Amino acid sequence: MSSRRSRSRPSGEVSRITEDQIADLVSKLQQLIPELRSRRSDKVSASTVLQETCNYIKNLHREVDDLSDRLSELLASTDTDSAQAAIIRSLLM
Amino acid sequence: MASYSISNPETNANRSHESKRKKRRKIEGENHAEAVTTEKNRWKTATEQQIYSTKLIEALRQSRRTSSSPATAVRETADRVLAAAARGKTRWSRAILTSRLRPQLGHKKVKATGGVRWKKPAEKKREPVLQRKLRVLRRLVPGCRKISFPNLLEEATDYIAALEMQIRAMATLAESLSGPSVRLGSDLS
Q1: Identity of the residue in B70, B157, B163 whose CB atom sits nearest the CB atom of A72
Q2: What is the pLDDT of residues A30-72, one digit of tens each?
Q3: Distance of CA B57 to the CA centre of its chain
Q4: How far apart are CA B35 and CA B41, in angstroms?
Q5: Bias regions of kind Polar residues — which residues (chain B) (predicted)?
Q6: Furthest-apart CA pair in chain A: how many Å?
Q7: CATH 1.25.40 fits A3-92, yes or no
Q8: Chain B interface includes A81 (CB < 8 A)
Q9: Contacts of A54 in chain B (CB under 8 A)
Q10: For residue B60, which phi and psi values (nearest 5 degrees)?
């Protein structure tokens, strides 16, 4: 029975995350953010990466909203034939 | 003319059973690592973008008349098609698909009481800066309010890649729709 205790409690372990883990994940995230890709990873703090990630996602959301706006206007004004031609064109691009 | 699969049912069943077991073990081992990398790259392929564009146009054509404003209808459709494209493998996609089923009353309540309980940062910092930014990130990625930090970063990674593809697809679509449509006939002939 005591040998089973070698496995640590799963629920307790999840909250304690090692610094190494954080650093690893943060560096991976840094590669995705265009702002931070050129900066050296030892000069960028985890806090900066998280901040830039949040900003970036907010920007992406805003772009999607703008595009939705534009698409809704365009779709309202075009007829079916032009819409279908547009689909074909966009697929060929 | 019976097909070859029927000719030896017993041996075939045994063989497929064996291979299935082996395959399953192999897949389970490789699947996790492969799944993460292929998921990340998937959003970057042109094929994925084209599939998304097609499905988006179809969904938009079917949902022309909705109660909310046309822009939000487009946004919601785009998000829904994007979440469907994830094929249920990520938490944010599942959260988007299920959130359509219930009204957003709970969400609004959180925002309203948030201002009252806000502690001034000049006082003793109850919450370290990193935790605060994590909380913002959790709010931005759908369905990730309670998952662990490593999982949150994985979800955010996939979510960002998916959003970028969504933007590329919608921008291309908007470009095509706003350009002149008459020239297409002459190009093809």
Answers
A1: B70
A2: 888 887 878 776 778 888 888 999 999 999 999 999 999 988 8
A3: 17
A4: 10
A5: 1-14
A6: 74
A7: no
A8: yes
A9: 133, 136-137, 140
A10: -65, -40
* φ, ψ at B36 (rounded to 5°): -65, -45
The Cα–Cα gap between A68 and B81 comes to: 13
Residue A17 has pLDDT above 70, yes or no: no
pLDDT digits (tens, 9 = 90+) for B11-39: 555 556 666 666 666 665 555 555 555 55
**B189 vs B177, residue with greater confidence:** B177
Contacts of B61 in chain A (CB under 8 A): 83
Taking CA–CA distances from B146, the nearest residue in chain A reads A15
Residues in chain B: 189
- Residue B163 pLDDT level (bands cut at 50, 70, 90): very high
| Facing B164 at nearest CB: one of A58, A60, A91 | A60
DSSP state of B66: -
pTM exceeds 0.90 for this model = no
- SS3 assignment, position A75: helix
Q: Cβ contacts of residue A31 below 8 Å, gap of 6+?
A: A37
- In angstroms, what CA-CA distances link B77 with A91, B11, B161, B166? 19, 49, 18, 11
